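discrete fold record:
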Amino acid sequence: MKHDTAGDPMTGLKWTRRTTGKIAKELRSLGIQISRTTVGKLLKGMKYSLRVNHKKLGPTGHPDRDAQFAHIGDWRERFAQEGDPIISVDSKKKEKVGSFKNPGAAWNREPVLVNDHDFMSRAIGKAIPYGVYDMQANRGSMFVGTSHDTATFAVESIAKWWRFDGRWRYPGAKRLLILADGGGSNGSRCRAWKRGIQEKLCDRYGLSVTVSHYPPGALKWNPIEHRLFAEVSKNWAGEPLDSYEKTLNYIRTTETTTGLKVKAYLVTKHYARGVKVSDDEMSQLRITTDTSLPKWNYTLSPTENGK
């Protein structure tokens, strides 16, 4: 078993990736009659234990990580001092809609029965939540898509937030700061994301939009993750999301003692994947990049024909 054993050098605790049944089978092949239950007892006596994977190893730090965090801090201070809106955005984990197990526990007289397998074929559909967290107001909006998590879906979700809430909460605002992860539908290298911001936010509403992306491996630092998404997950913990109505209701009823309120919208529009943006289209964007960290920081401004 030495090639299948790992251990803690501090406590002496060891673990193996082989099952007790396989160990018992190999011992029987050597003429040792033993059951898997006895193997388990012997392993415990030898300081072996069942272990699970722990998500504690992060990627090596990017050389510009600290500089980008400082940059984001500067932007936040500048916008906050002027009373301009600052939003944190991202996609939340996709959920199967149907009688599927949802992690966590909930108070019930009887356990809720769900499907024994998480086959997509048994789902009503899928819920693709895209969130917008207004950091100044402690308000969240989540747009639950039903097709694909694309750049167009992300930008249109932000544009809807501005139309429904942002422009009324910040009357007269001419600029917007967006804090986003570095990948996915709002990735720093996504052309469709940048073109969408130009067309659906800058030109349509006359906004100057500054975007700052978190560096690789820093997703959990994005405020929306722990201020909005974590609270929604707590609210629906242990409850199967067996309909879109129930999913939206759990989002809408998410609250915290610090005053968080959340709105939710169902988006049934189909979003096609693989949309390409040409070099010529990119050249038409009114984009200014940061001099020191251009790949993660840029500002898009309204064109002359924008509204």
